[in-house]
Structure formats: C-alpha cells, structure tokens
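Backbone-to-sequence.
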C-alpha cells in the first residue's frame, strides 16, 4: 500500500509516518491488514528525519498541480492531508492562507478526481470551523460559523471533500482535531500556540507568557491521541462514516487555570510559577471564538479515543518529548 502525507515534514506528519512504519500495515474497512510499501512525505522542506527505505521525501508547493501530479498516482491508496497554514499566520497573511488551506486542498482533490482511482483522503480540520454564539457543548452537526480566515478555509475544504466523496471521486473523511497540546519544539504562529507553550517552556526551565484569561476553556488532545485517531479514522469502514459527515475527535475540556493547576500537581510549584499572564487581544479574540466542549458520542461509538485528563497529556509529553 502506498500512502501520501501532505505536510509530511511537519510535527504531526513526521509522527504519523513513524507510527505507520512501526505498525507496518493498515486494515481498511475491517479487511485484512495490507502492508505499507511506501510513504511519500510532501512538504516545502525536505523530510529527512526518517531513513526507512519505505519513505520518500518530496519537496514542492502543494498548491502547484504539477507537484501534486508527481506526488499522487493511481497506486496511491491513502492520502493524509495535513498540510496547512496555521491559524495566526492565516489571519496575518490572507492570501497565503487561502492558497495553502483552500486552493491546495481543491487542487489535491482535483488530482485524485482526474486519476479516477478513488483514494481514501483523511483531512484534518479544526475547532476553528465553529464560532459565534455556540451551545455549551457543540455536536458534529452544529452549524459552522467560523470567526477567522483559518476557520473559514477549513470549513470550505470540509464541504469540498464531502462533495467529492458524494460524487465518488474520493473516499473522504473529515476528522476535526482539538487543539494539540503539548507540542514539542518552539512556538509557532498558531493562535493556540500558548496551549503548548505554557506547559512546554516551564518544563524546559523557561518562562512562559499566557496571552488569554485563566477562565478560557480549550478542547485539547495530545500528540499521541491525535496520531492514534488519524490512523483509526483512516481504517474505519466507509459505510460507518458515509452519512454522518465530519467527526469531532475526543479531547479534554479544560480551562487555562486548570491546565496550570495540572502542571503544578504533576511537576511542582517551581515549574508552574514560570507562567506569567499578559493579555493579547488578537489571540483572545480568535481562541475565544472556539468551542471548549464537544459532544463526541459519535466518535466514541466508532471506537475513537482521547486522553483521560490533562495531567495525562502532560505526562505523555514528559515521557515522549521532554529533553533529558
């Protein structure tokens, strides 16, 4: 089986590829496991962290149809479409966000349509597709009302994938990811970057600034949980997801104050005291429009799982990514 991961040089792309290589196969639609023979990692930078002979790094602009034609062939069975311009950057650079988050998504779908082989396409969407006046708990079918360019781009791409699936051009499924925390590395341009930074930096002995109020509620999922959900979502039978539309993935609903308290309980006062608070109106406006609680009964019914609590997320980061 040949697999393409867009955004393959990124944090999630690399972890997904590593887990797929470790697993060695995928069992689509409940059938027998099929061996993974090749994973293509497409990104604007070379993905050189993996040296497995089954991995091929493709460098190019995902919005360029010629690049996609090289990356996708009739033997490409599964596409994990992770490539994206993150929320804060998409808000700051409208044209770039539209080009990568929307135009490239349509170009990818058009490439699959032209080849006529109906690959399985797993698209990672976001909490940002919601916004405005929301119920206390949002459902999979709660009306989309994004309040950011990023959220709008993701919402349009969701609808496109649904229609290409309905028409039989691809076998698509949309997995709406909670905010991923705790991400390793350095801060990025995402409005939600602080959700990792206020844990990661203190654990690394550095100060961290929280740009939102302590009562801001977030919906979070660990990197471990995200990778597990992407693979499990890919393997779901088509008939199980065909009528239900996008799937809100399980996560942990937690306020920023509760995140700080969990860090204090897991790592101690000295670590948690490295967090300071300084409001950033732009970040508060974007993040404040996102839902803090999701009804994930459908995801649970499909066998998709999340983290138990935020303390478990912190411990997973400490085990997997905290520098020794």
């Amino acid at each position: 089986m040949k697999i393409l991961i867009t955004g393959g040089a990124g944090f999630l792309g690399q972890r997904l590829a590593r887990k797929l290589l470790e697993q060695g196969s995928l069992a689509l639609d409940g059938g027998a496991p099929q061996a993974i023979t090749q994973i293509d990692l497409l990104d604007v930078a070379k993905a050189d962290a993996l040296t497995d002979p089954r991995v091929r790094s493709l460098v190019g602009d995902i919005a360029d149809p010629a690049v996609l034609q090289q990356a996708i062939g009739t033997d490409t069975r599964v596409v994990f479409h992770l490539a994206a311009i993150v929320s804060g950057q998409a808000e700051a650079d409208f044209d770039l966000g539209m080009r990568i988050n929307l135009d490239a998504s349509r170009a990818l779908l058009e490439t699959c349509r032209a080849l006529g082989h109906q690959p399985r396409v797993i698209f990672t969407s976001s909490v940002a597709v919601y916004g405005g006046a929301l119920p206390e708990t949002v459902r999979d079918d709660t009306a989309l009302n994004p309040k950011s360019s990023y959220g709008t781009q993701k919402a349009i791409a969701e609808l496109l994938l649904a229609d290409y699936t309905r028409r039989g051009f691809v076998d698509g499924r949309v997995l709406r990811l909670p905010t991923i925390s705790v991400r390793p590395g350095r801060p990025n341009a995402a409005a939600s970057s602080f959700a990792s930074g206020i844990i990661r930096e203190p654990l690394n002995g550095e100060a961290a600034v929280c740009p939102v109020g302590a009562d801001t509620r977030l919906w979070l999922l660990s990197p471990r949980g995200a990778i597990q959900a992407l693979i499990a979502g890919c393997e779901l039978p088509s008939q199980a997801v065909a009528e239900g539309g996008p799937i809100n993935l399980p996560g942990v609903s937690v306020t920023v104050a509760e995140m700080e308290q969990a860090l204090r309980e897991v790592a101690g006062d000295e670590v948690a005291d490295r967090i300071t608070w300084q409001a950033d109106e732009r970040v508060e406006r974007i993040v404040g429009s996102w839902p803090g609680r999701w009804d994930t009964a459908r995801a649970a019914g499909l066998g998709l799982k999340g983290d138990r609590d935020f303390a478990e997320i912190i411990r997973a980061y400490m085990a997997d990514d905290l520098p020794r």
